[in-house]
């Protein structure tokens, strides 16, 4: 990586995270005497995306859960932003793809607020996925939405919506992209919300219908499944979540989503949570999360119901950690195998996309 253009003011310490386009470093801002994060693109191919990201981030500054931009300059290969904490997806994977219902609803509500905010600034994200949710703020209890490299303005300054068009190059990540994005339609607010629905299904069940089978790890198969997917296949008996998906799928291209309606449906889901917490907590025992999961009659969970129930009992009776649980129940461990994230330095090839469909993809 070419770190030579980073100003003296910043002293680079270590790599925090990597994506398809960039590497994120932790650094110290010597002037402000505070830690920061630097996003550096891997090669010149990413320069357009970096420029776009800085433009969009500038527009979104001040929004809740939006990383603060600290330093940027034209024609350079990096920018500096506020240092955030762990990626929510990494936490989720480290907890064996289990999320307690309190965390689930907090994340669902906060992500909806982030989307409403960015849409109010005429921005669509176009690459929503669990990796783009990072913890930050006081005690790292808030969800930040990151990575605006593929984002786009959907309306002009005077509020005129971009026109609908077809045969658009794909922008996004196959597993979480909307059906319209697969079909090559111009994206709009509704497509961010469809990706939102897939993120919710992933956090709720630990997977997505098209992720479960290795055989379906390619775009054509994912698109085919999304063409015929029914809400219950994503959310089981969670009626309120199914209603969100049905509503989102019914939105017109230019239609402003009714965020309050979606929030209301999340509220219905929330009513059924016993002892909800008001801040994110990754303490499995305290949240009684595995047991909560067994209480929800969901098709994806049903198949593993007996082993999950045993684990729930163990967690309660023996105060076991998640690692102890997975060691004791290899069947569970096998199911909860963490997804591998493959980092590539070049634009993704068809083959690499077949291996890992969580790679962002866009032709500018
Ligand atoms: N401000 C930050 N503070 C701490 N960690 C961060 C920050 N920004 C990003 N990260 C970490 O770096 C990872 C990669 O960041 P990002 O998604 O911006 O890279 P990318 O190359 O654009 O990824 P993609 O492959 O999705 O395009 C994130 O998942 C997160 O874990």
If you had to describe this structure to a student in words, what would you say it looks like?
This protein is an alpha+beta fold. The protein has two domains: 10-26 and 35-82, Phosphorylase Kinase, domain 1 (2-Layer Sandwich), CATH 3.30.200.20; 88-362, Transferase(Phosphotransferase), domain 1 (Orthogonal Bundle), CATH 1.10.510. It is 42% helix and 14% strand. The chain has 17 helices and eleven strands. The strands form four sheets. It has a five-stranded antiparallel beta sheet with strand order 1-2-3-5-4, covered by helices on one side. It has a two-stranded antiparallel ribbon with strand order 6-9. Strands 7-8 form a two-stranded antiparallel sheet. Strand 7 and strand 8 form a beta hairpin. Helix 3 packs antiparallel against helix 5 (189-205), helix 9 runs antiparallel to helix 10 (259-271) and helix 12 (289-295) packs antiparallel against helix 14 (305-318). The longest helix has 20 residues, at 101-120. The radius of gyration is 20 Å and the shape is globular. Mean pLDDT is 82; it is low at 286-357. Bound molecules: adenosine-5'-triphosphate.
């Amino acid at each position: 990586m070419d770190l030579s253009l980073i100003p003296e003011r910043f002293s680079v310490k270590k790599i925090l995270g990597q994506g398809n386009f960039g590497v994120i470093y932790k650094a110290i801002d010597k002037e402000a005497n505070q830690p920061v994060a630097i996003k550096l693109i891997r090669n010149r191919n990413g320069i357009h995306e970096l420029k776009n990201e800085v433009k969009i981030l500038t527009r979104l500054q001040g929004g809740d859960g939006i990383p603060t931009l600290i330093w940027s300059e034209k024609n350079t290969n990096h920018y500096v932003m506020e240092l955030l904490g762990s990626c929510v997806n990494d936490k989720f994977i480290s907890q064996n793809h289990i999320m307690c219902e309190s965390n689930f609803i907090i994340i669902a509500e906060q992500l909806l607020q982030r989307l409403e905010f960015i849409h109010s600034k005429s921005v669509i994200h176009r690459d929503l996925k669990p990796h783009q949710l990072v913890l930050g703020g006081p005690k790292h209890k808030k969800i930040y939405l990151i990575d605006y490299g593929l984002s786009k303005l959907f309306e002009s300054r005077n509020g005129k919506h971009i026109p609908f068009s077809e045969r658009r190059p794909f922008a996004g990540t196959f597993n979480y992209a909307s059906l319209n994005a697969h079909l090559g339609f111009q994206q709009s607010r509704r497509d961010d919300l469809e990706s939102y629905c897939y993120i919710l299904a992933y956090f709720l069940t630990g997977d997505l219908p098209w992720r479960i089978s290795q055989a379906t790890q390619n775009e054509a198969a994912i698109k085919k499944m999304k063409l015929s997917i029914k809400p219950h296949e994503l959310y089981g008996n969670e009626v309120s979540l199914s209603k969100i998906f049905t509503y989102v799928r019914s939105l017109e291209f230019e239609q402003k989503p009714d965020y309050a309606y979606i929030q209301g449906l999340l509220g219905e889901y929330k009513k059924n949570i016993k002892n909800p917490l008001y801040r994110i907590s990754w303490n499995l025992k305290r949240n009684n999360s595995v047991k909560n999961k067994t209480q929800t009659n969901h098709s994806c969970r049903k198949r593993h119901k007996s082993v999950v129930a045993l684990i729930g009992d163990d967690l309660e009776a023996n105060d076991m950690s998640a690692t102890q649980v997975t060691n004791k129940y290899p069947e569970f461990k096998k199911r909860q195998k963490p997804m591998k994230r493959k980092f590539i330095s070049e634009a993704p090839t068809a083959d690499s996309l077949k291996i890992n469909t969580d790679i962002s993809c866009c032709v500018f």
